[in-house]
Amino acid sequence: MDKIVVLDFGSQYSHLICRRIREANVYCELLPYNTPANVIKEIDPKGIIFSGGPASVYAKNAPKPDRQLFQMGKPILGICYGHQILVDNFGGRVKKSNSREYGRAGLVIDDKSDLFKSLGQSINCWMSHGDAAEKVPEGFKVLAHTENSNSAAIGNKDKRFYGIQFHPEVVHTERGTEILKNFAQEISGAKPEWDMESFIETTIKDIRKQVGKEKVLAAVSGGIDSTTVAALMHKAIGDQLRCVFINHGLLRQDEEKDVVKLFKDHLGIDIIYVNAEKQFLGKLKGITDPEKKRKIIGEEFANVFVDVVKKSGPFHWLAQGTLYPDV
To answer: Do residues 293 and 240 both lie within one domain?
Structure first.
């Protein structure tokens, strides 16, 4: 399946960029900004996006990508700070600023092909930046401008490198999703073949291939993340999955009954129920420091898991939910 990779330079909108790309039916993954080029080469994305971020390209230890990325022949779109990385890397000049430009701006589109295809003469865009591009690098041309930025969007069409100073991923930018779609599909050539159904199908196939005939233990809390993982795992490998729910004594009234009922009656999954209330509360008695409590709870969870493995194992894999709810 074709995919786009987003490198995260610390933007509060990085996950949102991924979501917008997926809304264009192209699969997208978020990776740290310093992911080595050889790792990205193995992933083989159709295109790469540099997110925004709070840093200045002139700051000491400013986050920079692996320079080999620019030699891979992949299309690159830099957003805000990512735009400034492109300008700085290719010999342009970024202007330092003591104040930030924040808010709506009118974007005049000077080149209506590829990145701004079918967007018309102008749109409103959302700016949120300190430094800004002052001199466009050789080989790049201005694609769009605002009243305060002569190079709000630039591009090198031969290399397929593009930089935009504004944020197309936020709703304040008119038709911003179309800009990201143009980069993903028109410029990068990614096929629009991803949707949630295909994600589920692909994930189930991957789980079956990786797990084989081995057994998996999943810790579940009844929350969205662990329940989703358990449902996917069970659909993929059936009774090879065992789920464990631990009553640690810190639950809402009758919550343990609700969780057991949810899994048995609605998901068709039998779970191992462990009442460790006395064990946890005994260890926590007299402890007031939050950090100490956190460590104690973590250690006791691990101890209970070990007991479960001894009694119900062996298990070869541990399944765990993650905080990525916008997939």
So the answer is: yes
